Amino acid sequence: SLFSDLRPLGPEGPFSLETQFIADSDSCKVNLIIGAYRNNQGQAWQPPSLVEAKKRIHVESCLHEYLPLHGSAEFLESSKLLVLGPEITNQAYDRIASIQTISGTGANSLIAKFLDNHTHPANIWLPDPTWVNHADIWKENAPGVDLRWYPYYDESSRSLSFSAMIQTLQRDTQENDAILLHACAHNPTGLDPTKEQWEEIALVCKEKKLFVIFDSAYQGFASGDLDHDAWAIRHFFTHPGLEFAICQSFSKNMSLYGERLGALHIVVSRKSSSPPTASVHGHLAEIQRACVSMAPLFGSRVANEIFKSEDLHLMWQADLLLMSNRIKTMRKAVYDELVRLQTPGNWDHVVHQTGMFSYTGLTEEQVGRLRKEHHVYMLPSGRASICGLTCANFKYTAQAIHSVIT
Ligand code: PMP
After folding, report:
1. What residue stretches are annotated with the Aminotransferase class I/classII large domain (predicted)?
2. Residue among 133, 163, 153, 183 nearest 361 (CA)
3. DSSP 50-118
4. Which of 308, 309, 342, 373 is 20 to 30 A removed from 336 (C-alpha atoms)?
5. Is 187 in the pocket of ligand 1 (CB under 6 A)?
6. Atom of ligand 1 nearest to the CA of 102
7. What is the mean pLDDT of the chain?
8. Average pLDDT over residues 242-249
């Protein structure tokens, strides 16, 4: 066969662990693998705003026509407003090119291909560590761009390695390089820069003439407050001349995981009297056409329903608070239990990190023992999805961690 030389590949990391988890028949098993919200019963959950939006859509009578190439114009207006806020959206009305994408993954892939085709950065700088898919997205979509890593996580202090990050960016980046920044709730570390640190990062990006890509997969889900989680992105706008892209996902904050709803927005600078927004817009659609034609319809219908009705918007904000608060409560619960058990080490990071994940600091060997001896599953890097904890299993999980450490 033409394919005999193909190297056999199993399912990728988290997906292979998920298969093992499903096959595990132990009644105490705990799933801290996949980044998807679970309720206190450990079940996938539909937020009330989503349930109500679907009722209002009258699914039975919906047509299933193609969306335009750029996606739903109504959705793009609202998603832009959500991430940039009304003031910036107004000010930059003629210099934001937006396109609906196949969720955050599609937005990341599209910007990689777009830059590789049109602006030719020598390097893309990714945080070390980052979401497992980032490196593959760039390798697959931007073969002309080299992958480089900037330090992000200091293992000994379990904190942001901020000075090393800044030093690397100052010393090693070239003009026109692209840099990926997580807008909030950094995956996998749960560590975000402070406002002062964001200000410094923006200055370096500006000075070194880098093109910034914000990956915004957790707006509102991280803190429960949509504006708070968009602060860094909006701050970058205050630096005239900085051009940047936003890869926006609605998987987590609207619980639309499988519907693949997202957007890519590119903020173009106003150096000339007529910013090249229309050209950017046109080329984005050209690439998207060749890859997938256009994004799927249903998710944008649901989101439009939530965006256009004040009562649903408020309901959605309450859902975001509920989800983020449950995660915070579980962080505190497992932390208190580890302290009560006098588990060796300092566990403060579990409560200080934000978003869905905790970068626990457990070694690959300890994670392996957790799985084999206690049926508690997390990524080999020690990343645990806090959403998998419930009032019924956090004590068991803390005890399991305690026993692989002592
Ligand atoms: N970026 C980051 C940082 C993520 O954590 C995720 C989801 N795990 C994504 C992008 C993309 O998710 P989706 O394609 O479902 O929007």
Report:
1. 29-401
2. 153
3. HHHHHHHHTGGG---PPPPTT--HHHHHHHHHHHHHHHHHHHTTTSEEEEEEEHHHHHHHHHHHHHHHH
4. 373
5. yes
6. 14
7. 96
8. 97
Q: Cα-flanking dihedrals φ and ψ of residue 245, to 5°?
A: -120, 155
Residue whose CB lies within 8 A of the most ligand 1 atoms, among 37, 83, 101, 105, for a mutation test? 105
The whole-number pLDDT of residue 11 equals 64
Q: Which of 131, 247, 256, 264 to mutate to test the pocket of ligand 1 (most atoms within 8 A of CB)?
A: 131
131 Cα: distance to centroid of ligand 1 (angstroms): 8
What's the pLDDT tens digit per position in 170-211? 999 999 999 999 999 999 999 999 999 999 999 999 999 999
Q: Residues with Cβ < 8 Å from 192, sequence gap 6 or more?
A: 160, 182, 184, 185, 186, 222, 232, 354
C-beta 385 within 6 A of ligand 1? no
